[in-house]
């Protein structure tokens, strides 16, 4: 099982701070299939990188 609790991630875009997601909570049961979709720049790849442990979220908890 994968559990995300109140995960947030942002990055600097030039002089501005861009919030990709904030307060994201998600529970994925073992053996489940999940589709992550959204517009370009919404944070889909960033979320997958957080789930893979390649980058760290700004806030929140990720449990495996």
From TrEMBL:
Pfam families for the chain: ABC_tran
- Keyword annotations of the record: Transport
Domain ABC transporter stretches:
22-62
Q: Does the keyword Transport apply?
A: yes
Q: Which Gene3D superfamilies match?
A: P-loop containing nucleotide triphosphate hydrolases (3.40.50.300)
Single annotated GO MF: ATP hydrolysis activity
Identification of the protein by name: ABC transporter
Q: Which organism is it from?
A: Brochothrix campestris FSL F6-1037
